[in-house]
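On clarity, I found the account of how folds are encoded harder to follow than it need be. Since the whole study asks how a given chain folds, the encoding of that fold should be made plain. For illustration, here is how one protein appears when written out as sequence plus structure tokens:

:::
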Amino acid sequence: MASPCGTESSGGCCNGCCPNPFGGLTEFHLLAQKSPTTALSARKEFDVVTTCALFPTNVHFTNHESIPSLEESYSNFTKVFTEYSKTDEADQIRSQHYFHLSSLNQSVRLNSRMQYGSEESDLEFRFRRRIMDFMNISEDDYTMVFTANQSSAFKLLAESYPFYSNKNLLTVYDHENEAVEAMVESSKKKGARVKTAEFSWPDLTIHSAKLMKKLVSKSKKRKKGLFAFPLQSRVSGVRYSYLWMSLAQENGWHVLLDATALGLKDMDTLGLSLFKPDFLICSFYKIFGENPSGFGCLFIKKSSASVLESSNGPASVGIVSLVPAMRPSQVPEGSTFTGVEMELETTNELTKSKTREISMIDDGKTKLQCKGLDDADSLGLILITHRARCLINWLMKALTSLRYPYSEDGFLLVRIYGADVMFDRGPAVAFNIFGWNGEKVEPALVQKLADRYNISLSCGFLANISFSGKSEEERERVLERRSGEGDRNDSGISVVTAALGFLTNFEDIYRLWAFVSRFLDADFVEKERWRYLALNQKTIEI
């Protein structure tokens, strides 16, 4: 599938003439609208500095004690990314309102407070209006449902979608996804034919020819099924073109747009007025609450709502309501108490439990304030995107600069999967650490050790990888085969993944780099095991 300018559609073109992968406006396209010359210069400058100046090819670090200090690294970083200093407004917001994200407790998790002054009956209406305004979604076009999380939203839709008649489910994910798996299992019970997109090794971009074949059919039947499509991989950081949605709609598919991997400002520039998916799922997890906590949102296009049917499962599974733990009328007379704790009450069949999620301040006003959304609005898409691009690409270059000594060409400590350093990539990276003997350090072990250093990492499983041509010989070498439930065997790659938030700073990624560099010490894992025992902690297997 070619874009209007003739370039491959797996990403936006570099001339600013084609719509971007998000269907809205990325930083590059905003610049291109103002000045095409400036936009192209920015991309060209980025390509030069990231490939040449960040870490010259002859600079390798073979010992964790040899890596430069935070101060020296930051100095070099700002010399290369000269525009980064213009994003210091994000640092100011972080220090004033998110002080828990200090170097002593690093986790790139957000701690936003929602302040609201009105009665309970008005709360949900106003909160829904705030979210829809932020997402630039019209209430004339979509209905919104609060869900407990991404998985609940997928499950809710799967239980209601008519897979009996619309037989196909086509998903586009380069990694194992619990929410998608739940949808797959539900659809199979209704007789659906499940298909998946494949991703080309080694860059993990969509295998366009194969996906095109699955989407486009010679059959004139219009009821194809459901096309579940994310705009970005939350594991590898690879971004995809929104034009796949258009192709699916033209060929009779209902489109589910999964925006859960996007950052806040990416979500509010989706450009849904151009390409309106039938269903949209987004996540506001880690935006509200102390835990961190949050919820998911399922948007249903009103013109597509009639296709949904009554669910055979428990009523309202996963739907979330906002209710007050203490009503204003319950506050004792004469009390100076002005804060009313709010709770999210879920109707999930596994728990009917309530967890305190939101703080409401009753000050007689009727304005709903969502601190995380307001802060993202104040920073803007250009600043957030530019800041994340500088940080994620420095991190990727830094990780690949770590090499073992005394080996021909310097054996790499870290292997990164998916998109290489580039101008337009998501703020996430999937990687693995390898020992002196060339064997991979288990991602779960890396995650546990990172926790001890107050660094937040996740584990993922890359899947649906397609090998062809010269890469075919790598299949057996890089793929793992693990047994799943039942008779299913999954082939893929278990990985460690790091994701950046809109308030992530240079110290965050430096600390991650410094932590990973410790694996250059062949005894690091064993030392950590003994250190844990020396603290008289309960022995656990790592």
Notes: The two ends are 46 Å apart (CA to CA).
